[in-house]
Specification:
Layout: E1 5-14, E2 19-21, H1 22-26, H2 33-40, E3 44-46, H3 54-69, E4 78-82, H4 93-101, E5 108-111, H5 117-130, E6 136-143, H6 154-157, E7 163-172, E8 177-185, E9 193-194, H7 206-211, E10 217-218, H8 220-242, E11 251-254, H9 259-269, H10 280-283, H11 290-300, E12 309-316, E13 320-327, H12 335-342, E14 350-351
Parallel strand pairs: 4-5, 4-6, 11-12
Antiparallel strand pairs: 1-7, 1-14, 2-3, 6-7, 8-13, 9-10, 12-13
The structure holds acetyl coenzyme *A (ACO).
Acetyl coenzyme *A binds next to helix 2, helix 6 and helix 8.
Length: 354
Amino acid sequence: MTRLYGAITGWGAYVPPHIVTNHDLEATLDTSDEWIVQRTGIRQRHIAGADETTSTMAIKASLAALAQANLPATELDLILVATSSPDYFTPPASSLVQAALTPHHIPAMTIVTGCTGFVYALVTAYQFIQAGVYRNILVVGVELLSRFLDWRDRSTCVLFGDAAGAVVVQATEQPCGLQGYDLGSDGANCQHIIMPAGGSARPFGPDVLDERSHYIRMNGREVFKFATRIFAPASERALRMAGKCIDDIDWVIPHQANLRIIQAAAKDMGVPLERFIVNIDRYANTSAASIPLALAENLANGRIKPTDTLLLLSFGAGLTWAAAVVQMQPQLHSAQSLSEKSRRVGEGNVFVYP
Ligand code: ACO
């Protein structure tokens, strides 16, 4: 039987137009631009408008990715949406995205693994492709975490931003796409990133509102230690599965949670920081959207070449981690078509390709 691979044929991202700088936060919080920049590398974040929801952002990024893949949404076989900040607990955000994109009743699934959700979803998409079940899959990472943050808690609210990123994965016989991966979960330490109330363990009620325990709470120091511990071994396992070494990787795209975590990962892995994609200064931590946003932005501006081999590296609530080695595919994107697409970067706040 012919072996099938999954080519990433389209990518797109959306960030809401409204920017909140660290200086803006100084007006309402006991914080400073200096503290936030020094401890995290964040200078600003994009925050969704009142008329936006998680699914409306996801749809914009998806339309951009589908346009670049030149694939009508009606040709999709499966939609995977990674988010921890859905429009509703139920129905799933993935069904809202499906309804907006296609009248066909294709399967749609929401994947909830915190910041690692996009990489988990990408790995899931490849399983369906390699099994020969589906040919055209939309994978979205999207978060509107600003609605789930306690804006009185300076230890969390300064860290996050809203965004969406999407890719189209299509079956091909050309060897490319996912080469190796390493997924994991350390659920015994899940309390370090938690929304304590609002679920079945502690249903919503007036006491919850008083305590503000329906918002995200995080033990930053423990999460920081977990992240710096997990990146190097997870990368090694994903590279081993891919039959590659770190020198084969053109770009590492790490989850954008804290510049110091990225610097520590670079040191541990023996990779110069210059080979890491970093955009945390402009978008902050956009959780499940951070990797597809960085991917789309840097493919579109030409920094990542369509022939490059990438290492995607993420960690998040759960505590989960995800590493994936992805080979982009030269035969599907000529240099000329890429430069045409690159010119379109940054038109408004939707990256529209081509
Ligand atoms: N402004 C000013 N001071 C602050 C702020 C702020 N925004 N936030 C905390 N502080 C203070 C603290 O109160 C503390 O003061 P104290 O010493 O008087 O008690 C001091 O700064 C130091 O606090 P630490 O928590 O030790 O600061 P640290 O250097 O660890 O940085 C941070 C905190 C940025 C949260 C860091 O621990 C971190 O990035 N952790 C990882 C978080 C993460 O990556 N989360 C991603 C996963 S989220 C997901 O999956 C949804």
